[in-house]
Amino acid sequence: MEKEMSRRSFLKTGTAAAMGLAMTPSSMFAATNSKKKKKAAKEGKLKILGVGIGGRGAAVLRDVETEDIIGLCDVDWKYAMPVFERYPNAKRYNDYKVMFAELLDECDAVVCATADHTHAIICAEALAAGKHVYCEKPLTHSVYESRLLTKLAAKHKVATQMGNQGASGEGVRKICDWIWNGEIGEITKVETFTDRPIWPQGLERPTETPAVPSTLNWDAFLGPAPERPYNPIYTPWNFRGWWDFGTGALGDMACHILHPVFKALKLGYPTKVQGSSTLLLSESCPNAEFVKYTFPARDNMPKVAMPEVEVTWYDGGLMPERPELLKAGINLNNAGGAAIFYGTKDTLICGCYGRDPYLLSGRKPEVPKMCREVTLSHGQDWVRACKEDPEDRIPTASDFSEAGPFNEMVVMGVVAVRLQGLNQILEWDGEKMEFTNIPENATVRSVIKDGFSIKDGHPTFNKTWTEKVNARKFAAELIKHTYREGWELPAMPE
Q: Tens digits of per-residue pLDDT, 205-234?
């Protein structure tokens, strides 16, 4: 947790209060409510529920504790106890379904910071009820889930924010202004990387089945994922490295590092993607990955064209080629990673979160401000948006209208890594959420166990593989998960 907090230390701290008029969702009021009651609600504090509060959720709640936190839920009460104690007036739960049944009608907004695989099902229920939502990154575990949250948020006209805090930072704004003003010219290549993972990956499923701690609701942790025995390797922190629960370093850190790329270049759906990695296991994310996306040309801006661009991702210690003009000894890794924009006029480099952008030429552009400057913290800007009327609301820096399509890009890259056994560049139809060039009878498999032995000085490799499965069906399942019985999402809005 110390490392997690230190890499976010550059972000602005919360303000004492939010800006703008207050508003609660229209669903909170029946037709018979009086004008006096509506006015009181607008002038009061937001009533917030927190789901997943022991890790990143704790930091998010501290950022919004200017408001009234009325309910808290975490599947691991030992991990979450300091947060429970910080908000003694909030009701405590270990199952969000129970909390929602009792308190969802009373609240205005929900903060979700659970494991990746439960983000969508929690946030979708809140959005469908007309509640404002703050969700930690990655927004969802799958492409379909991202599309669903995007549409639900638009339908119910609520304020939303994904927890990629750098989106509200000065660096992202400066990158957008420089690029949109034509300072580095047309960009056809971007390379990005992170130094993560810093949690265990490349692991086989453990065989030990210890008893579930009395303080942990294991069934609630599993949520919509397939059932499996408890093991402490899965939670609270290490869920990121397991396919069923997390999305690896790409899903985690790309939400910080790729966001300024997505925003500044006005990217939409990619058309092509290819992925590769170290040993691909059936249970756990690989130790290192490479993903290359191809995005089509976009509409020209007044001062710069937006041609086709290739965006490349590296993690697990893999690095892009150093730019020719970068001085020897300079470490590209800034706060956990970097992005390198190659333009026809100049090269722009920034750290994780869009931090500390600079041009390789040494120029320091003076340009008009075109991207909204966020003067509040990431959480408080969301509070501000929650309290504004939908018709006049200024969207947050990572509103789901942007965060949803962006997250689709991120988790689609995860799918490409898991399909690398096809040995082809995959063509993507973003509107339909499907790959269009996977052969009908193609199959894929992954490694269950990586066996190795030496006898008489000779090495023997003995991998245990999963059964071959149809690649189209496998891809479809990764794009839109089948939830276990008792768990389901609301219908996709038109």
A: 999 999 999 999 999 999 999 999 999 999
SS3 string, the chain, reads: CHHHHHCCCCCCCCCCCCCCCCCCCHHHCCCCCCHHHHHHHHHCCCEEEEECCCCHHHHHHHHCCCCEEEEEECCEHHHHHHHHHHCCCCEEECCHHHHHHHHCCCCCEEEECCCHHHHHHHHHHHHHCCCEEEEECCCCCCHHHHHHHHHHHHHHCCCEEEECHHHHCHHHHHHHHHHHCCCCCCEEEEEEEECCCCCCCCCCCCCCCCCCCCCECHHHHHCCCCCCCCCCCCCCCHHHHECCCCCHHHHHHHHHHCHHHHHHCCCCCCCEEEEEECCCECCECCCCEEEEEEECCECCCCCCCECCEEEEEECCCCCCCCCCCCCCCCCCCCCCEEEEEEECCCEEEEEHHHCCCEECCCCCCCCCCCCCCCCCCHHHHHHHHHCCCCCCCCCCCCCHHHHHHHHHHHHHHHHHHHCHHHCCCEEEECCCCEECCCCCCCEECCEEEEEEEEECCEEEEEEEECCCEEHHHHHHHHHCCCCCCCCCCCCCCC
- What structural domains and CATH numbers belong to the chain? 2-167+375-402 (3.40.50.720), 169-202+235-359 (3.30.360.10)
**Predicted TM-score (pTM) of this structure:** 0.90
Tens of pLDDT, residues 439-451: 999 999 999 999 8
